[in-house]
Structures are given as structure tokens and as C-alpha cells.
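Model: You mentioned two targets. I'll fold them one after the other.
Researcher: Yes, keep them separate.
Model: Target one:
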Amino acid sequence: MKVLAKSIIVSRRKVVKDETYNCVISLFNQNNPHLGQEEPFDIVEFDNIHKVIIKNLNVNYLLFGNDIVINNLKSLDVSSDKEHVTIYGEQE
């Protein structure tokens, strides 16, 4: 899936009934969305994910929320198989 966004936040959401996690990718039109009040313009969620694989991108890991921020995106491609989400892209 091709995605058009300036930045993303990758996070997780626990599914209580199954003790598994969903991968949540929030899409933004500005860099460093965790510092502002802007809401994501879209949210993509993948169910029952074991691992997120990030390729060819510089990332920032936010300790206070266990989230990953990826800024300065030129292009982004997100794909998923049954257990993994792969995020691949280019940055400015």
C-alpha cells in the first residue's frame, strides 16, 4: 500500500481478549507530530502483528510512549503478511 504523508507514528494497541498486539500507523501532514496538537489525517491498523520491519528509513523512538516517529517522508510503502508489517520508504 502506497502512503502519502510527511510523517508517521508507529505504535501498538493491545487486544485484551487474545493477548496480542495490533500495529497502528498514524499519518500526518507535518514533521514531529508528537510535539503539536495536530490529529492524524488517517490511521491504518493491522491485527495480530508479531513484528514491524522498518527498511531504509531514519527513525526516532519515543521512550515515553513506546512509539516510533518517522519524519521527512518523500514516499512510503506499507505491506503486511500474517505476522509482520514492513515499512519501506524514502526521506528528504
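Model: Target two:
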Amino acid sequence: MQNFQIFEDPNELRIKQECDYESLRKITLSKNEGNAVTNNVFNIISSNCNEKNTKSEIVFTVSSSHLTEKEINFNWKSFDTLVIEYHRDFEIFKKKQ
């Protein structure tokens, strides 16, 4: 007999974290592992670069049954422009303009 939890808290793996050119905003790419009923999810989160416990905001969220870290990336193009590259088959849950 095997035991597993259906609604356990997902494990979060931080993949990449960078501040903008003026060190004001920080962008974090993290992966939340799915469980028995959910797929893996990638989140791109924005927060303040210099403060530890600041309010963060989810900028972009995608999900797929076959997520890998190589299929999503972000780069600062300028001070106010963030470029997010991702696989076109991902299911997009949130995309901030």
C-alpha cells in the first residue's frame, strides 16, 4: 500500500533572479512542482530589489505537463522592459501587460 497526499504544498525551486539596471526592481523565475492532480508551474514574480520582505506581484504564470527550465527565460531589455521567452505550447494563466 502506498501513501501520498493529493493537496500537499508544492515544492518551489528558484531558477533565476535578477535586478534591473538601476537595482530597483527584482524579477524571480521559480518553478512549483505539481502533485497528483496539478501540473508543474513556472512563475515570474516582481518585487523590490533592495528590501527583503516586500510585497511581490506575479507578472507571468505558465503551466504544462512537460515543463523544463530550458523552455522559459527572461531578460531585461531596458529599465522598464522585461522580455520573457517561453515555449508556445505552455498554458498561460497570467500575463501582465
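Researcher: Noted. Anything on target two?
Model: The two ends are 48 Å apart (CA to CA).
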